[in-house]
Amino acid sequence: MDLCDELLEEVLRRLPSSSSSADVSLVSKRWLRLYRSTRTTLSLRLSPDNCTPHSLSSFLSLFPNLSYLSVTINGRDRVSSFPDQILLSFASSRPKLTVASSCPKPARLCLQPEPVSHFPLLSLSTSFPHLTSLDIALHRPFNFYWLLFFHSLKNLNVSFQYVFEPVYPACEGNYDGELKLETLSFSGIQRGDHGLNWLWKSCKTLKKLQLTCCGGIGDDTSGSSFVNCLKDLQEVELIHCPRPIRDEILLKLVDNCASLSSLLVNDRYADTTGLRQFIARSRCNLRKLDLHIFPGCLRENDLLAVADKFTGLLSLRLCDFSFDTGGEGLKTKMLAMSNELEELALVYCNWEPGLLTTLGQKFRNLKKLDLSFNRWMAEEEFISMLVSCKFLTELKLRWCEGLTNASLVSMFKSCKQLESLDIRDCPGIGAESVELFVLNSSRLRQITVEESKISHVSRSWLQRSRSNGQLCFFGVPNPCKLCYPKPDTQTMYLS
């Protein structure tokens, strides 16, 4: 009996992400057409050698429900107009992608790493009035007045092309308007860049700001404009930003932002004066703190200051943390933290004996634990901690060389709620114990491990017992989340 289109679409929608249109096309053209109609995400890698604007427009029209498109442009030709042509092709295909006007679907577009011009962006705003997320690269000089035409845009991610010659200011004009942006991510801003003042002034509903490898926030007049977007910020991420701009932003947060709930500082620079001042003077009630600081720059007293200042902390992530005293010092300071902590990460850290056992007894509500890259972690202490952490749902133990099969036995006995486990590069854990763990963990939805440790029994049981499960090899993009791990490992996704 031949299935109706609606039922067949539902079947195709449930196919694992590893399936491709080539597999479906072997059945019939009808199946291929219905398969494409179920796709909501699409990732393409294009170059002038394998794509023309017309062919792209025709191809995209075959996906009527497409809501997310990711395009990677091959090549580094700065004078090429190919990225602009791709953007215009995508805009021209929109009429065939339109869904019912009574229920417009949000759309996300990512076009990297080659920069685009302002004119194609204006065309895109006309064709995609409901675009909510945009990820692009821009030439210098630049301006952001084109954002006024994206009435639904909530998330903007922009990387700026590095230049080594003087760049003249972009044309300034009098444009009134308030943007609805909630998330703003910049990469590569240079000190002295023009064209950002208007953007800072117009972002009054911003909730999250991420700056990566940024040496400034604009030209000499941008400081006062920048303050406008800080009032209601909830999340800030500063990643590899030079010390002067990092400290400047942290001090502006102290004076102008009391709503901050999440702060991430990933810094390769040794001076942490600005961070210490933020901890001492901040008026916000942080719920999440993530610090990846140059080794030796933060001390145990800094951690005690964090415990005293941010009493409502729910997530604490430390990487390369330097413990400068022995005995009970670190234990005392960690115990000063709120016992409501739900996420704890001690990545590439050294600690005194007995700390993990004590932390397990203190933080009994932990749901996420990351102890990755602690090569010399004592297994007995880790197992002792697990006995108290009965609510763990996510556990990461990559490159913990001291762990053996006994750790997995302890996990399925103590951690009945565990859904995600990462045990890559743990040579003491073998395939037999992985198989035993998989067969005895009823809530497991994802396990990350070397392919050689996934036995035939584990693979067959997972695929048989989870009818909606999927097997995703590393290096093959997953529509739910993109990841680029080592090619010799794999993840079993079971939800």
From TrEMBL:
Biological-process GO terms, alphabetical: SCF-dependent proteasomal ubiquitin-dependent protein catabolic process
SMART domains in UniProt: LRR_CC
SUPFAM superfamilies hit by this protein: F-box domain (SSF81383), RNI-like (SSF52047)
GO terms for cellular component: SCF ubiquitin ligase complex
InterPro entries per record: F-box-like_dom_sf, Leu-rich_rpt, Leu-rich_rpt_Cys-con_subtyp, LRR_dom_sf
Domain of life: Eukaryota
Pfam families on file: LRR_6 (PF13516)
UniProt name for this protein: Uncharacterized protein
Originating species: Rhododendron simsii
